Protein backbone atom coordinates (compact mmCIF):
# COMPACT_ATOMS: atom_id res chain seq x y z
CA UNK A 1 0.00 0.00 0.00
CA UNK A 2 1.37 3.45 -0.89
CA UNK A 3 1.80 6.13 1.75
CA UNK A 4 -0.91 8.24 0.20
CA UNK A 5 -3.41 5.39 0.60
CA UNK A 6 -2.76 4.74 4.30
CA UNK A 7 -5.42 5.74 6.76
CA UNK A 8 -4.41 8.85 8.76
CA UNK A 9 -5.32 9.13 12.45
CA UNK A 10 -8.68 10.72 13.23
CA UNK A 11 -7.21 13.21 15.72
CA UNK A 12 -4.46 15.29 14.12
CA UNK A 13 -1.14 14.92 15.95
CA UNK A 14 0.76 17.69 14.17
CA UNK A 15 0.63 21.41 14.94
CA UNK A 16 3.17 23.66 13.20
CA UNK A 17 5.74 21.00 12.26
CA UNK A 18 6.69 19.75 8.81
CA UNK A 19 4.44 16.98 7.45
CA UNK A 20 6.73 14.17 6.22
CA UNK A 21 5.92 12.45 2.90
CA UNK A 22 4.78 9.20 4.54
CA UNK A 23 2.05 11.07 6.42
CA UNK A 24 0.64 12.96 3.44
CA UNK A 25 -2.89 12.02 2.43
CA UNK A 26 -6.06 13.29 0.80
CA UNK A 27 -7.13 14.33 -2.69
CA UNK A 28 -6.76 17.74 -4.25
CA UNK A 29 -10.51 17.85 -4.92
CA UNK A 30 -11.00 18.07 -1.14
CA UNK A 31 -9.88 21.71 -1.38
CA UNK A 32 -12.91 22.53 -3.54
CA UNK A 33 -15.37 21.12 -1.02
CA UNK A 34 -13.51 22.68 1.92
CA UNK A 35 -13.72 26.22 0.56
CA UNK A 36 -17.08 25.91 -1.17
CA UNK A 37 -18.89 24.42 1.82
CA UNK A 38 -17.03 26.60 4.28
CA UNK A 39 -18.08 29.81 2.52
CA UNK A 40 -21.81 29.09 2.54
CA UNK A 41 -22.33 30.53 5.99
CA UNK A 42 -24.00 33.45 7.82
CA UNK A 43 -20.99 35.81 7.95
CA UNK A 44 -20.48 36.02 4.15
CA UNK A 45 -24.26 36.34 3.76
CA UNK A 46 -24.28 39.28 6.17
CA UNK A 47 -21.25 40.83 4.46
CA UNK A 48 -22.71 40.43 0.97
CA UNK A 49 -25.89 42.21 2.00
CA UNK A 50 -23.91 45.40 2.69
CA UNK A 51 -23.70 46.17 -1.02
CA UNK A 52 -27.42 46.97 -1.14
CA UNK A 53 -27.96 47.78 2.54
CA UNK A 54 -25.09 50.14 3.23
CA UNK A 55 -23.80 51.16 -0.20
CA UNK A 56 -27.24 51.46 -1.90
CA UNK A 57 -26.48 49.48 -5.05
CA UNK A 58 -29.25 47.80 -6.97
CA UNK A 59 -29.06 44.04 -7.45
CA UNK A 60 -27.40 44.18 -10.88
CA UNK A 61 -24.51 46.41 -9.86
CA UNK A 62 -24.27 44.67 -6.49
CA UNK A 63 -23.82 41.27 -8.13
CA UNK A 64 -21.25 42.62 -10.61
CA UNK A 65 -19.24 44.17 -7.76
CA UNK A 66 -19.41 40.98 -5.71
CA UNK A 67 -18.18 38.84 -8.61
CA UNK A 68 -15.36 41.21 -9.57
CA UNK A 69 -14.14 41.41 -5.98
CA UNK A 70 -14.14 37.64 -5.44
CA UNK A 71 -12.63 36.87 -8.84
CA UNK A 72 -9.69 39.21 -8.11
CA UNK A 73 -9.18 38.37 -4.44
CA UNK A 74 -9.49 34.65 -5.06
CA UNK A 75 -6.33 34.72 -7.20
CA UNK A 76 -4.17 35.72 -4.25
CA UNK A 77 -5.92 33.35 -1.87
CA UNK A 78 -5.48 30.35 -4.19
CA UNK A 79 -1.82 31.17 -4.87
CA UNK A 80 -1.19 30.89 -1.14
CA UNK A 81 -3.05 27.57 -1.05
CA UNK A 82 -0.82 26.15 -3.77
CA UNK A 83 2.18 26.51 -1.45
CA UNK A 84 0.83 23.93 1.01
CA UNK A 85 1.67 20.61 -0.72
CA UNK A 86 5.06 21.94 -1.81
CA UNK A 87 6.12 23.15 1.65
CA UNK A 88 4.24 20.87 4.05
CA UNK A 89 4.13 23.53 6.78
CA UNK A 90 1.57 26.14 7.94
CA UNK A 91 1.50 29.50 6.19
CA UNK A 92 2.51 31.61 9.18
CA UNK A 93 5.57 29.45 9.91
CA UNK A 94 6.56 29.77 6.25
CA UNK A 95 6.55 33.57 6.64
CA UNK A 96 9.77 33.25 8.63
CA UNK A 97 11.51 32.57 5.31
CA UNK A 98 10.47 36.01 4.04
CA UNK A 99 10.66 38.17 7.17
CA UNK A 100 13.03 36.26 9.46
CA UNK A 101 12.14 34.31 12.59
CA UNK A 102 11.31 37.43 14.61
CA UNK A 103 10.47 39.75 11.74
CA UNK A 104 7.42 37.61 11.00
CA UNK A 105 5.93 37.99 14.48
CA UNK A 106 3.89 41.12 13.72
CA UNK A 107 2.06 39.45 10.84
CA UNK A 108 1.52 36.28 12.88
CA UNK A 109 0.01 38.33 15.71
CA UNK A 110 -2.26 40.24 13.29
CA UNK A 111 -3.42 36.98 11.73
CA UNK A 112 -4.15 35.58 15.18
CA UNK A 113 -6.25 38.62 16.07
CA UNK A 114 -8.22 38.23 12.84
CA UNK A 115 -8.89 34.55 13.51
CA UNK A 116 -10.12 35.37 17.02
CA UNK A 117 -12.33 38.11 15.61
CA UNK A 118 -13.80 35.84 12.95
CA UNK A 119 -14.37 33.10 15.52
CA UNK A 120 -16.16 35.47 17.88
CA UNK A 121 -18.29 36.94 15.08
CA UNK A 122 -19.34 33.50 13.96
CA UNK A 123 -20.34 32.27 17.41
CA UNK A 124 -22.47 35.41 17.77
CA UNK A 125 -24.19 34.48 14.50
CA UNK A 126 -24.49 30.87 15.69
CA UNK A 127 -26.15 32.06 18.89
CA UNK A 128 -28.62 34.23 17.00
CA UNK A 129 -29.37 31.45 14.50
CA UNK A 130 -29.99 28.92 17.26
CA UNK A 131 -32.25 31.39 19.07
CA UNK A 132 -34.12 31.95 15.81
CA UNK A 133 -34.73 28.21 15.45
CA UNK A 134 -35.52 27.49 19.12
CA UNK A 135 -36.66 30.66 20.87
CA UNK A 136 -36.37 29.06 24.32
CA UNK A 137 -32.60 28.95 23.79
CA UNK A 138 -31.16 32.37 24.60
CA UNK A 139 -28.54 34.00 22.40
CA UNK A 140 -25.79 33.61 25.08
CA UNK A 141 -26.62 29.92 25.44
CA UNK A 142 -26.56 29.56 21.67
CA UNK A 143 -23.16 31.26 21.57
CA UNK A 144 -21.75 28.68 24.00
CA UNK A 145 -23.26 25.76 22.06
CA UNK A 146 -21.84 27.08 18.78
CA UNK A 147 -18.42 27.64 20.31
CA UNK A 148 -18.26 24.16 21.85
CA UNK A 149 -19.19 22.53 18.56
CA UNK A 150 -16.44 24.40 16.72
CA UNK A 151 -13.95 23.58 19.47
CA UNK A 152 -14.53 19.84 19.20
CA UNK A 153 -14.04 19.97 15.43
CA UNK A 154 -10.93 22.13 15.75
CA UNK A 155 -9.35 19.81 18.31
CA UNK A 156 -9.92 16.73 16.15
CA UNK A 157 -8.32 18.75 13.39
CA UNK A 158 -7.46 18.65 9.73
CA UNK A 159 -9.04 15.40 8.55
CA UNK A 160 -12.39 15.90 10.30
CA UNK A 161 -12.64 19.46 8.99
CA UNK A 162 -12.26 18.18 5.43
CA UNK A 163 -14.83 15.38 5.96
CA UNK A 164 -17.45 17.78 7.33
CA UNK A 165 -17.01 20.19 4.43
CA UNK A 166 -17.35 17.41 1.86
CA UNK A 167 -20.76 16.71 3.36
CA UNK A 168 -21.52 20.41 3.77
CA UNK A 169 -20.84 21.18 0.12
CA UNK A 170 -23.77 19.04 -0.98
CA UNK A 171 -26.14 19.85 1.86
CA UNK A 172 -25.49 23.60 1.94
CA UNK A 173 -25.19 23.87 -1.84
CA UNK A 174 -28.64 22.32 -2.29
CA UNK A 175 -30.01 24.40 0.59
CA UNK A 176 -28.91 27.76 -0.80
CA UNK A 177 -30.20 26.87 -4.28
CA UNK A 178 -33.60 26.04 -2.74
CA UNK A 179 -33.47 29.34 -0.86
CA UNK A 180 -32.85 31.27 -4.07
CA UNK A 181 -35.64 29.34 -5.77
CA UNK A 182 -38.16 30.09 -3.03
CA UNK A 183 -37.42 33.84 -3.03
CA UNK A 184 -37.54 34.16 -6.81
CA UNK A 185 -40.82 32.22 -7.10
CA UNK A 186 -42.73 33.50 -4.04
CA UNK A 187 -41.69 37.14 -3.67
CA UNK A 188 -42.18 40.00 -6.18
CA UNK A 189 -38.76 40.86 -7.57
CA UNK A 190 -39.68 43.67 -9.95
CA UNK A 191 -37.91 46.35 -7.90
CA UNK A 192 -34.71 44.37 -7.24
CA UNK A 193 -33.04 46.13 -10.16
CA UNK A 194 -34.53 49.55 -9.48
CA UNK A 195 -34.22 49.79 -5.70
CA UNK A 196 -30.87 51.51 -5.32
CA UNK A 197 -28.68 52.26 -8.31
CA UNK A 198 -25.04 52.75 -9.25
CA UNK A 199 -22.54 54.90 -7.41
CA UNK A 200 -18.82 54.56 -7.92
CA UNK A 201 -17.86 54.70 -4.23
CA UNK A 202 -20.43 52.07 -3.23
CA UNK A 203 -19.50 49.85 -6.15
CA UNK A 204 -15.78 50.04 -5.38
CA UNK A 205 -16.48 49.46 -1.68
CA UNK A 206 -18.44 46.30 -2.52
CA UNK A 207 -15.64 45.11 -4.82
CA UNK A 208 -13.22 45.68 -1.94
CA UNK A 209 -15.38 43.65 0.46
CA UNK A 210 -15.31 40.70 -1.94
CA UNK A 211 -11.57 40.95 -2.60
CA UNK A 212 -10.70 41.41 1.06
CA UNK A 213 -12.93 38.49 2.04
CA UNK A 214 -10.71 36.25 -0.08
CA UNK A 215 -7.42 37.86 1.00
CA UNK A 216 -8.42 37.43 4.66
CA UNK A 217 -8.02 33.64 4.15
CA UNK A 218 -4.44 34.05 2.92
CA UNK A 219 -2.70 33.60 6.30
CA UNK A 220 -4.14 30.12 6.80
CA UNK A 221 -5.37 28.78 3.46
CA UNK A 222 -2.27 26.59 2.89
CA UNK A 223 -2.72 25.07 6.35
CA UNK A 224 -5.49 22.99 4.75
CA UNK A 225 -3.47 21.86 1.75
CA UNK A 226 -0.20 21.03 3.53
CA UNK A 227 -1.12 17.37 4.10
CA UNK A 228 -1.60 16.69 0.38
CA UNK A 229 1.12 14.62 -1.34
CA UNK A 230 4.05 16.75 -2.52
CA UNK A 231 3.51 15.65 -6.13
CA UNK A 232 0.17 17.49 -6.28
CA UNK A 233 0.79 20.22 -8.85
CA UNK A 234 0.56 23.95 -8.23
CA UNK A 235 -2.14 24.43 -10.94
CA UNK A 236 -4.30 21.63 -9.51
CA UNK A 237 -4.13 23.10 -5.99
CA UNK A 238 -4.72 26.62 -7.31
CA UNK A 239 -7.82 25.86 -9.37
CA UNK A 240 -9.60 23.60 -6.90
CA UNK A 241 -9.10 26.19 -4.16
CA UNK A 242 -9.98 29.13 -6.40
CA UNK A 243 -13.18 27.67 -7.80
CA UNK A 244 -14.38 26.38 -4.45
CA UNK A 245 -13.79 29.62 -2.58
CA UNK A 246 -14.98 32.02 -5.29
CA UNK A 247 -18.14 30.07 -6.12
CA UNK A 248 -19.11 29.42 -2.50
CA UNK A 249 -18.49 32.94 -1.24
CA UNK A 250 -20.07 34.61 -4.28
CA UNK A 251 -23.23 32.54 -3.80
CA UNK A 252 -23.42 33.57 -0.15
CA UNK A 253 -22.75 37.25 -0.84
CA UNK A 254 -25.42 37.34 -3.56
CA UNK A 255 -27.88 35.41 -1.40
CA UNK A 256 -27.49 38.01 1.34
CA UNK A 257 -28.17 40.82 -1.14
CA UNK A 258 -31.27 39.07 -2.51
CA UNK A 259 -32.65 38.28 0.95
CA UNK A 260 -32.50 41.88 2.20
CA UNK A 261 -34.07 43.15 -1.03
CA UNK A 262 -36.92 40.67 -0.52
CA UNK A 263 -37.76 41.98 2.97
CA UNK A 264 -38.56 45.32 4.63
CA UNK A 265 -35.75 47.89 4.75
CA UNK A 266 -33.65 47.90 7.91
CA UNK A 267 -34.23 44.27 8.90
CA UNK A 268 -31.33 42.26 10.34
CA UNK A 269 -29.84 40.15 7.54
CA UNK A 270 -30.35 36.73 9.13
CA UNK A 271 -33.90 37.68 10.12
CA UNK A 272 -34.37 38.71 6.49
CA UNK A 273 -33.15 35.28 5.36
CA UNK A 274 -35.67 33.54 7.62
CA UNK A 275 -38.55 35.77 6.47
CA UNK A 276 -37.67 35.75 2.76
CA UNK A 277 -37.43 31.97 2.53
CA UNK A 278 -40.86 31.40 4.10
CA UNK A 279 -41.51 27.78 5.04
CA UNK A 280 -37.89 27.01 4.31
CA UNK A 281 -36.73 29.68 6.78
CA UNK A 282 -36.25 27.49 9.87
CA UNK A 283 -34.49 24.84 7.78
CA UNK A 284 -32.19 27.48 6.28
CA UNK A 285 -31.26 28.72 9.75
CA UNK A 286 -30.50 25.17 10.91
CA UNK A 287 -28.26 24.59 7.87
CA UNK A 288 -26.45 27.88 8.39
CA UNK A 289 -26.07 27.13 12.08
CA UNK A 290 -24.38 23.81 11.28
CA UNK A 291 -22.29 25.58 8.65
CA UNK A 292 -21.04 28.29 10.96
CA UNK A 293 -20.11 25.72 13.62
CA UNK A 294 -18.17 23.65 11.08
CA UNK A 295 -16.48 26.55 9.31
CA UNK A 296 -15.67 28.34 12.53
CA UNK A 297 -13.41 25.45 13.49
CA UNK A 298 -11.01 26.79 10.83
CA UNK A 299 -10.81 30.13 12.63
CA UNK A 300 -10.17 28.47 16.00
CA UNK A 301 -7.60 26.16 14.42
CA UNK A 302 -5.85 29.14 12.77
CA UNK A 303 -5.86 31.18 15.99
CA UNK A 304 -4.25 28.33 17.93
CA UNK A 305 -1.63 27.72 15.22
CA UNK A 306 -0.76 31.43 15.40
CA UNK A 307 -0.38 31.31 19.19
CA UNK A 308 1.83 28.22 18.93
CA UNK A 309 3.95 29.95 16.27
CA UNK A 310 4.43 33.01 18.48
CA UNK A 311 5.43 30.95 21.52
CA UNK A 312 7.67 28.57 19.58
CA UNK A 313 9.64 31.49 18.16
CA UNK A 314 11.05 32.14 21.62
CA UNK A 315 10.85 28.57 22.99
CA UNK A 316 12.24 26.78 19.97
CA UNK A 317 13.01 23.59 21.91
CA UNK A 318 9.30 23.19 22.68
CA UNK A 319 7.64 20.57 20.51
CA UNK A 320 3.90 21.34 20.55
CA UNK A 321 1.58 18.33 20.41
CA UNK A 322 -2.09 17.61 19.89
CA UNK A 323 -2.55 18.08 23.64
CA UNK A 324 -1.04 21.58 23.42
CA UNK A 325 -3.42 22.42 20.59
CA UNK A 326 -6.41 21.13 22.60
CA UNK A 327 -5.52 23.14 25.72
CA UNK A 328 -4.96 26.34 23.76
CA UNK A 329 -8.24 25.77 21.85
CA UNK A 330 -10.17 25.65 25.13
CA UNK A 331 -8.46 28.82 26.42
CA UNK A 332 -9.24 30.73 23.21
CA UNK A 333 -12.82 29.40 23.27
CA UNK A 334 -13.44 30.68 26.82
CA UNK A 335 -12.06 34.15 26.03
CA UNK A 336 -14.10 34.42 22.83
CA UNK A 337 -17.31 33.27 24.51
CA UNK A 338 -16.96 35.93 27.19
CA UNK A 339 -16.33 38.61 24.55
CA UNK A 340 -19.22 37.40 22.37
CA UNK A 341 -21.77 37.25 25.19
CA UNK A 342 -21.02 40.73 26.48
CA UNK A 343 -20.75 42.40 23.06
CA UNK A 344 -23.13 40.32 20.91
CA UNK A 345 -25.41 43.27 20.17
CA UNK A 346 -22.82 45.20 18.16
CA UNK A 347 -19.77 42.92 17.90
CA UNK A 348 -20.09 42.11 14.20
CA UNK A 349 -20.27 45.74 13.16
CA UNK A 350 -17.17 46.58 15.20
CA UNK A 351 -15.39 43.50 13.92
CA UNK A 352 -15.94 44.44 10.26
CA UNK A 353 -14.36 47.80 11.10
CA UNK A 354 -11.40 46.01 12.71
CA UNK A 355 -10.91 43.68 9.75
CA UNK A 356 -10.82 46.60 7.32
CA UNK A 357 -8.13 48.23 9.44
CA UNK A 358 -6.10 45.03 9.90
CA UNK A 359 -6.18 44.19 6.21
CA UNK A 360 -4.17 47.34 5.53
CA UNK A 361 -1.24 45.59 7.23
CA UNK A 362 -2.08 42.16 5.84
CA UNK A 363 -2.11 43.11 2.14
CA UNK A 364 1.63 43.93 1.88
CA UNK A 365 2.40 40.61 3.58
CA UNK A 366 0.41 38.82 0.88
CA UNK A 367 2.36 40.60 -1.86
CA UNK A 368 5.75 39.87 -0.27
CA UNK A 369 4.95 36.22 0.44
CA UNK A 370 3.76 35.52 -3.10
CA UNK A 371 6.61 37.36 -4.83
CA UNK A 372 9.18 35.66 -2.63
CA UNK A 373 7.69 32.21 -3.14
CA UNK A 374 6.95 32.31 -6.87
CA UNK A 375 9.46 34.80 -8.26
CA UNK A 376 12.48 34.86 -5.91
CA UNK A 377 12.86 31.40 -4.37
CA UNK A 378 10.54 29.56 -6.78
CA UNK A 379 9.28 27.36 -3.96
CA UNK A 380 12.71 26.22 -2.80
CA UNK A 381 13.24 26.87 0.93
CA UNK A 382 15.38 25.40 3.70
CA UNK A 383 12.79 23.88 6.06
CA UNK A 384 15.35 23.27 8.82
CA UNK A 385 16.29 26.97 8.93
CA UNK A 386 12.63 27.95 9.25
CA UNK A 387 12.43 26.05 12.54
CA UNK A 388 15.72 27.26 13.99
CA UNK A 389 15.67 29.83 16.81
CA UNK A 390 17.92 32.25 14.92
CA UNK A 391 16.16 31.72 11.60
CA UNK A 392 19.07 29.80 10.09
CA UNK A 393 19.91 31.19 6.66
CA UNK A 394 16.91 33.55 6.93
CA UNK A 395 18.10 35.21 10.15
CA UNK A 396 16.11 37.03 12.79
CA UNK A 397 15.04 39.78 10.38
CA UNK A 398 15.00 40.34 6.63
CA UNK A 399 15.56 44.12 6.10
CA UNK A 400 14.35 44.07 2.47
CA UNK A 401 11.04 42.43 3.37
CA UNK A 402 10.47 44.63 6.41
CA UNK A 403 11.22 47.85 4.49
CA UNK A 404 8.95 46.85 1.61
CA UNK A 405 6.29 45.91 4.16
CA UNK A 406 6.39 49.29 5.90
CA UNK A 407 6.29 51.16 2.57
CA UNK A 408 3.41 48.92 1.48
CA UNK A 409 1.44 50.06 4.53
CA UNK A 410 2.30 53.75 4.17
CA UNK A 411 1.26 54.02 0.50
CA UNK A 412 -2.20 52.74 1.41
CA UNK A 413 -2.96 55.46 3.96
CA UNK A 414 -4.20 58.14 1.49
CA UNK A 415 -6.55 55.56 -0.08
CA UNK A 416 -8.00 54.17 3.17
CA UNK A 417 -11.60 54.48 4.22
CA UNK A 418 -12.15 52.90 7.63
CA UNK A 419 -14.05 54.06 10.71
CA UNK A 420 -10.65 54.85 12.21
CA UNK A 421 -9.35 57.00 9.36
CA UNK A 422 -10.42 58.28 5.93
CA UNK A 423 -7.55 59.16 3.59
CA UNK A 424 -7.62 62.33 1.46
CA UNK A 425 -7.73 60.49 -1.86
CA UNK A 426 -10.52 58.22 -0.64
CA UNK A 427 -12.47 61.27 0.51
CA UNK A 428 -11.94 62.86 -2.92
CA UNK A 429 -13.47 59.84 -4.71
CA UNK A 430 -16.58 59.73 -2.53
CA UNK A 431 -15.21 57.38 0.10
CA UNK A 432 -14.10 54.48 -2.10
CA UNK A 433 -11.43 52.37 -0.40
CA UNK A 434 -8.72 51.35 -2.86
CA UNK A 435 -5.97 50.88 -0.28
CA UNK A 436 -5.74 47.09 -0.79
CA UNK A 437 -5.23 47.50 -4.54
CA UNK A 438 -2.58 50.19 -4.11
CA UNK A 439 -0.82 48.07 -1.48
CA UNK A 440 -0.60 45.09 -3.83
CA UNK A 441 0.47 47.12 -6.87
CA UNK A 442 3.24 49.00 -5.02
CA UNK A 443 4.58 46.30 -2.70
CA UNK A 444 4.93 43.51 -5.28
CA UNK A 445 7.42 45.16 -7.69
CA UNK A 446 9.18 46.99 -4.86
CA UNK A 447 9.94 43.79 -2.96
CA UNK A 448 10.93 41.96 -6.14
CA UNK A 449 13.43 44.69 -7.00
CA UNK A 450 14.88 44.84 -3.49
CA UNK A 451 15.10 41.06 -3.06
CA UNK A 452 16.60 40.57 -6.53
CA UNK A 453 19.29 43.17 -5.83
CA UNK A 454 20.11 41.52 -2.53
CA UNK A 455 20.38 38.11 -4.17
CA UNK A 456 22.69 39.51 -6.84
CA UNK A 457 24.84 41.14 -4.15
CA UNK A 458 25.14 37.86 -2.24
CA UNK A 459 26.23 36.04 -5.39
CA UNK A 460 28.92 38.66 -6.01
CA UNK A 461 30.20 38.31 -2.44
CA UNK A 462 30.33 34.55 -2.73
CA UNK A 463 32.24 34.84 -6.02
CA UNK A 464 34.83 37.11 -4.39
UniProtKB/TrEMBL annotation:
<feature type="transmembrane region" description="Helical">
    <location>
        <begin position="167"/>
        <end position="185"/>
    </location>
</feature>
<feature type="transmembrane region" description="Helical">
    <location>
        <begin position="351"/>
        <end position="371"/>
    </location>
</feature>
<dbReference type="Pfam" id="PF02133">
    <property type="entry name" value="Transp_cyt_pur"/>
</dbReference>
<dbReference type="GO" id="GO:0005886">
    <property type="term" value="C:plasma membrane"/>
</dbReference>
<keyword id="KW-1133">Transmembrane helix</keyword>
<feature type="transmembrane region" description="Helical">
    <location>
        <begin position="275"/>
        <end position="294"/>
    </location>
</feature>
<feature type="transmembrane region" description="Helical">
    <location>
        <begin position="103"/>
        <end position="125"/>
    </location>
</feature>
<comment type="similarity">
    <text>Belongs to the purine-cytosine permease (2.A.39) family.</text>
</comment>
<protein>
    <submittedName>
        <fullName>Allantoin permease</fullName>
    </submittedName>
</protein>
<keyword id="KW-0813">Transport</keyword>
<dbReference type="GO" id="GO:0022857">
    <property type="term" value="F:transmembrane transporter activity"/>
</dbReference>
<keyword id="KW-0472">Membrane</keyword>
<feature type="transmembrane region" description="Helical">
    <location>
        <begin position="59"/>
        <end position="83"/>
    </location>
</feature>
<feature type="transmembrane region" description="Helical">
    <location>
        <begin position="32"/>
        <end position="52"/>
    </location>
</feature>
<feature type="transmembrane region" description="Helical">
    <location>
        <begin position="434"/>
        <end position="451"/>
    </location>
</feature>
<feature type="transmembrane region" description="Helical">
    <location>
        <begin position="241"/>
        <end position="263"/>
    </location>
</feature>
<feature type="transmembrane region" description="Helical">
    <location>
        <begin position="326"/>
        <end position="345"/>
    </location>
</feature>
<feature type="transmembrane region" description="Helical">
    <location>
        <begin position="137"/>
        <end position="161"/>
    </location>
</feature>
<dbReference type="InterPro" id="IPR001248">
    <property type="entry name" value="Pur-cyt_permease"/>
</dbReference>
<dbReference type="InterPro" id="IPR026030">
    <property type="entry name" value="Pur-cyt_permease_Fcy2/21/22"/>
</dbReference>
<keyword id="KW-0812">Transmembrane</keyword>
<feature type="transmembrane region" description="Helical">
    <location>
        <begin position="197"/>
        <end position="221"/>
    </location>
</feature>
<feature type="transmembrane region" description="Helical">
    <location>
        <begin position="402"/>
        <end position="422"/>
    </location>
</feature>
